[in-house]
Design goal:
This protein has 160 residues and is of the alpha/beta class. The chain contains six helices and five strands. The N and C termini lie far apart (48 Å). The structure holds 4'-phosphopantetheine (PNS).
Length: 160
């Protein structure tokens, strides 16, 4: 049986932390669908298409990773795709409450869905898309935190 996992998020933009999680998950699932939520963030810096394109470039070497957008409930999207696992990263205790609520709600909505929490590599633990966006906006160096294609996209978006 093929194990399919969904890794949902807003990915505005994908960071090295997300990449780390995807690669870790591919050690125990057969396929990962990186699912960009259409309405997750009201005013994203990058458009949906830009976010999808960046993730596709970042993951192009691995045919086991698929990149899709989804509208509506994650629980329904999981049913549509046949995924039985949702992957989420836990970086700090502060993530826990929101993640715990989401996991329980998702299982309430789709009782075949289990959430698996992964811990990123220690040196990526402090990373988040919002922090990286802020650092980039204020002219800081984000080279260490994102793939070169994302760095280039920041350059264009922020006109540097
Ligand atoms: O990266 P984020 O912004 O923390 O991701 C949040 C996301 C996209 C996983 C969450 O908002 C989500 O699943 N949205 C889809 C709509 C949905 O199913 N909402 C109920 C979640 S319990």
């Amino acid at each position: 049986m093929t194990t399919i996992a969904i890794y949902p998020g807003s990915f505005d933009p994908i960071t090295r932390g997300h990449e780390d999680l995807i690669r870790r998950s591919l050690q125990f699932v057969d396929r990962v669908i990186v699912a960009v939520a259409v309405n997750a963030s009201k005013t994203p810096l990058f458009t949906l298409e830009e976010r999808l394109d960046m993730i596709r470039v970042v993951l192009r070497d691995d045919a086991r990773a698929e990149v899709r957008s989804f509208n509506g409930l994650l629980a329904d999207f999981a049913r549509e795709t046949g995924a039985k696992l949702v992957l989420r990263g836990l970086r700090a205790v502060s993530d826990f409450e929101y993640e715990f609520q989401m996991a329980l709600m998702n299982r309430q909505l789709n009782d075949e869905l289990e959430t698996v929490f992964l811990v990123p590599a220690v040196h990526l633990t402090y990373l988040s898309s919002s922090l990286v966006r802020e650092v980039a906006r204020l002219g800081g160096d984000v080279r260490e935190f994102v793939h070169p294609v994302v760095l280039e996209a920041f350059g264009k978006k922020l006109k540097r």
